[in-house]
Design brief:
single chain, 3-stranded antiparallel sheet, mainly alpha, Arc Repressor Mutant, subunit A, 162 residues
Length: 162
């Protein structure tokens, strides 16, 4: 977030029933990938917010305790799906959805795929020739190469659109 002015303190209006449904669905979607539901709900709020929001505002919107947000904020910050925003003269930390979030998410996926390939290669090296498990590891390496190329192509296309 490049703006150096603190957000207008127009309280985030209560989301409409349709937006509340969207926020809840974001929670369920990310929960299906192992992210706590509250993390997906936070992301849903950040996606529809017109300005950075404080943790207190997000807790109020989601009707959860401030404490229940902190672990999820760390997860979203680490995965680059949220960013901290501060403003001179304002001691509050705000959160926003980063402009480059989806690109960063793709880069994280590429790193994960590369690491899986490295692990499969390690296992392949450790197995003796002729071991039937070698085939599964070779297929894993083949799969990681394919997925890496698909993600790399997608990342290139995404960057071209920006």
């Amino acid at each position: 977030m490049k703006n150096t002015d603190p957000p207008h303190r127009n309280k985030f209006k209560k989301p409409s029933p349709e937006l509340t449904h969207f926020i809840e669905n974001m929670g369920r979607y990310f929960e299906s990938f192992g992210i706590p539901r509250i993390g997906g709900r936070i992301l849903g709020v950040l996606l529809i917010a017109h300005e950075p929001l404080s943790a207190e505002e997000i807790a109020s919107i989601l009707k959860v305790s401030r404490g229940s947000l902190s672990t999820n904020f760390r997860l979203l910050l680490t995965s680059a799906l949220a960013e901290k925003v501060t403003f001179p003269g304002d001691r509050t930390t705000y959160y926003a959805f980063p402009a480059a979030a989806w690109e960063k998410a793709m880069v994280v996926e590429l790193e994960g795929i590369a690491f899986l390939k490295k692990l499969a290669q390690q296992g392949l090296t450790a197995l003796p020739f002729g071991d039937p498990a070698r085939n599964r590891l070779e297929k894993t390496i083949e799969w990681t190469d394919l997925i890496h190329n698909v993600y790399q192509d997608a990342l290139t296309q995404w960057r071209a659109r920006q």
